[in-house]
């Protein structure tokens, strides 16, 4: 049964303009691909501004390298035009800036598309722009920013897109979701449309929580963790906790029985076993001495489950270990 469409299923104009908040590994890659496909894209930058303003964006990609010698680059949102789709591609550790970054650039009829990892971000954005103007995307992408304005796309790239409604109520496949999907597909990005953003987000967390977290705590890449029976078993136990957290969250927020099937756990384990040896984004950040996205990826889901009356002991221990390591790193 398809879910009821939200009252907010207003269509977006054609063509749609895009703003990229955070022109890094993810925002720089997808934004460049959208521009390459003909979309009008405006890039917000920080330390890379001068380089990108003068020399554009360089993208090395398994799908073919390309350079955009000229892009619409900005240092502040005040310089940017309002856009139809504002893509949030900052690290979530920068989300305290969203109250100042978002309002000036979202058109009155525009939407905000959250492409970050983690839980609860759409709700934070909805408080800024209204719950009828938020959408989410889960990016299965392996990409790094290797230099100012220089992106290296290593693997994958597909995005699961879903619309948002208050309390993560299922929205079904809305017209505006299809419009944005068509822009990304025109840019050669594989898109999956999901009726239920809550399920889609917890499915991504089923990968991010064990593998981003354990890669830091155990100082290991994904292949090494999958090759050892004990760490494979630990990853599966964490996935089972995420599965329980998802069910409790759905019941708490909307009184509904929505859950992730146990088959999906085996699918994710098989998927990871087949991945090229991969240093997760959290491990890359840890090794580089950068802030870790612990709160969005582990803390928020843990607190959501606890709010729903469910304790998750292994996720709790992982959170304690990661927050300790993050504190040691910054001391
Ligand atoms: N990389 C990947 O393959 C994947 C990433 N993700 C998720 O996507 C999100 C983004 O990650 P990722 O792209 O890897 O991160 P990056 O650090 O590569 O990109 C973030 C960009 O935001 C910029 N930035 C930071 N603060 C500001 C600011 N105040 N104004 C303007 N720009 C700013 C940074 O610039 P500066 O250099 O100045 O700090 C940086 O270029 C995260 O939630 C991550 O978990 C999800 C799936 C895969
Ligand atoms: C699943 C994966 C590895 C790629 O999308 C990811 O989410 C990350 O590196 O943060």
TrEMBL record:
Keyword annotations of the record: NADP, Oxidoreductase, Pantothenate biosynthesis
Domain Ketopantoate reductase N-terminal: residue ranges: 18-164
Pfam families given in the database record: ApbA (PF02558), ApbA_C (PF08546)
Membership in a protein family: Belongs to the ketopantoate reductase family.
Record PANTHER family: 2-DEHYDROPANTOATE 2-REDUCTASE, PROBABLE 2-DEHYDROPANTOATE 2-REDUCTASE
Matching InterPro entries: 6-PGluconate_DH-like_C_sf, 6PGD_dom2, ApbA, KPA_reductase, KPR-Related, KPR_N, NAD(P)-bd_dom_sf
SUPFAM superfamilies the UniProt entry points to: 6-phosphogluconate dehydrogenase C-terminal domain-like (SSF48179), NAD(P)-binding Rossmann-fold domains (SSF51735)
Lineage of origin: Bacteria, Bacillati, Cyanobacteriota, Cyanophyceae, Oculatellales
NCBIfam families: apbA_panE, PRK06249.1
Domain Ketopantoate reductase C-terminal: 200-323
Metabolic or biological pathway, per its Swiss-Prot or TrEMBL entry: Cofactor biosynthesis; (R)-pantothenate biosynthesis; (R)-pantoate from 3-methyl-2-oxobutanoate: step 2/2
One Gene Ontology term, aspect cellular component: cytoplasm
Catalysis: reaction(s): (R)-pantoate + NADP(+) = 2-dehydropantoate + NADPH + H(+)
Function: Catalyzes the NADPH-dependent reduction of ketopantoate into pantoic acid.
This protein's name: 2-dehydropantoate 2-reductase
UniProt GO molecular function: 2-dehydropantoate 2-reductase activity
EC class of the enzyme, as a word: oxidoreductase
Enzyme Commission identifier(s): 1.1.1.169
GO annotation terms (biological process): pantothenate biosynthetic process
């Amino acid at each position: 049964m398809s879910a009821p469409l939200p009252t907010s299923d207003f269509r977006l104009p054609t063509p749609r303009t895009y703003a990229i908040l955070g022109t890094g590994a993810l925002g720089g890659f997808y934004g460049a691909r959208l521009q390459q496909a003909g979309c009008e894209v405006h890039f917000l930058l920080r330390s890379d501004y001068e380089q990108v303003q003068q020399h554009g964006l360089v993208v090395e990609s398994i799908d073919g390298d390309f350079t955009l010698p000229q892009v619409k680059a900005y240092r502040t949102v005040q310089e940017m035009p309002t856009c139809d789709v504002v893509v949030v591609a900052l690290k979530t550790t920068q989300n305290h800036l969203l109250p100042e970054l978002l309002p000036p650039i979202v058109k009155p009829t525009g939407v905000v598309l959250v492409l970050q990892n983690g839980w609860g971000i759409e709700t934070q954005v909805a408080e800024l722009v209204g719950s009828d103007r938020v959408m989410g995307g889960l990016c299965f992408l392996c990409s790094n920013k290797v230099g100012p304005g220089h992106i290296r796309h290593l693997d994958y790239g597909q995005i699961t897109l879903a619309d948002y409604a208050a309390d993560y109520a299922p929205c079904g496949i809305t017209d505006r979701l299809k419009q944005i999907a068509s822009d990304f597909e025109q840019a050669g990005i594989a898109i999956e449309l999901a009726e239920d953003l809550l399920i889609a987000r917890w499915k991504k967390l089923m990968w991010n929580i064990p593998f981003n977290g354990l890669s830091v705590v155990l100082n290991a890449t994904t292949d090494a963790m999958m090759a050892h029976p004990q760490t494979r078993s630990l990853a599966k136990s964490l996935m089972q906790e995420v599965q329980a957290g998802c069910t409790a969250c759905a019941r708490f927020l909307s009184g509904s029985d929505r859950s992730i099937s146990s088959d999906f756990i085996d699918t994710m384990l098989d998927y990871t076993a087949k991945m090229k040896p991969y240093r997760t984004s959290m491990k890359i950040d840890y090794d580089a001495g950068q802030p870790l996205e612990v709160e969005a990826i582990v803390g928020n889901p843990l607190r959501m489950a606890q709010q729903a009356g469910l304790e998750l002991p292994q996720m709790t221990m992982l959170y304690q270990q990661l927050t300790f390591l993050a504190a040691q790193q910054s001391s």
